[in-house]
Amino acid sequence: MTDNITKLLQEAVVLDTETTSLDFKVAEVVQYASASVQEILETVEAGTYEVGNSFYKPSEPIKPECSAVNGITNRMVENCEDFAKDVGHTQNNLNQYMYYVAHNAAYDAKVLTRYGLTLPKQICTLRMARKLYEGNPNITAFKLGHLRYALDLPIDDNIVAHRADQDVIVTGVLFVELLAEAIKQGVIDPDKKDIGQQIVDWIDEPIVITIMPFGKHKGEKLTSVPLSYWQWAIENMDSLQESKPEYDKDFAASVAKAVEQIFEAGQ
Asked: 3-state DSSP call for residue 83?
């Protein structure tokens, strides 16, 4: 392990939230956990599997469908404070790091910035995995739980999904695995001092897809979708409006490329 990698493992914090909704605009944090990548590796090696985490009471009762996923109940958070009252402590912790690592980091970022938090530079393990394994027949999904088992990560079987503290552990181990793969594939140079920034720049590049992921044209090639539909979509879909919080730069880049190809084919 190079000194540059060791430094990154120390200056990158892994974080995860459990919330009351998948809609970041209304989601409230009911559990927050974080630990540096180095701390995670140490706790895994020691077999203790413990990282710092806290529970919080939302302004509205936790819905049954949320408890069914993460096992966090209203009884568990009854005597806890609101996450909004703890943002100062959380911010002080985040200020110690250059980068934060999360799976589907964009969601956590949207939720946490709603609370007024300023986050370090973002490293998303979901985007890393998609860039490294898209098209790999052995990786058929990119959810955290699937990647854990598909890549046979060295994590105790008693660690379960959908608890922030345990997801932080899985994400930290996954990040180390993905970093090794990125170096193996030559997209990251471990001998350069800016290894963290290399990762940020690499995963920030749009992931271009070719198949429509939703709607009435789901499953069709983007280039097979009528141009009239794309003209409507560009004007009306929030995911294609850069000024909207729902903006999806990957989908927008994919649509732009497809429209360009449609025009070229028509010439």
From this structure: helix
Tokens of residue 106, six digits: 């964009």
206 alpha-carbon distance from chain centroid: 15
- 8 A C-beta contact, residue 204 and residue 49: no
CATH topology for the 3-204 domain: Nucleotidyltransferase; domain 5 (3.30.420)
- What is the reported pTM? 0.88
Contact 51, 33 (CB under 8 A): yes
Sign of the alpha-carbon torsion through 49, 54, 55, 58: negative
Give pLDDT tens digits for 236-252: 999 999 998 889 999 99
Q: Helix-strand-coil percent breakdown of the chain, rounded to 5?
A: 50, 10, 40
Q: How far is 232 from 89, CA to CA, in rounded Å? A: 46
Q: Which residues pair with 221 in a beta bridge?
A: 211
84-137 pLDDT, tens digit per residue, is: 999 999 999 999 999 999 999 999 999 999 999 999 999 999 999 999 998 899
Within the chain, all domains assigned CATH 3.30.420.10 are found at 3-204
Q: How many CA atoms lie within 13 A of 9 on its CB side?
A: 22
Q: Which residue has the tokens 């966090």?
A: 72
* CB-based burial, 239-258: b 16+ in 10 Å, e otherwise: ebeeeeeeebebbbebbebb
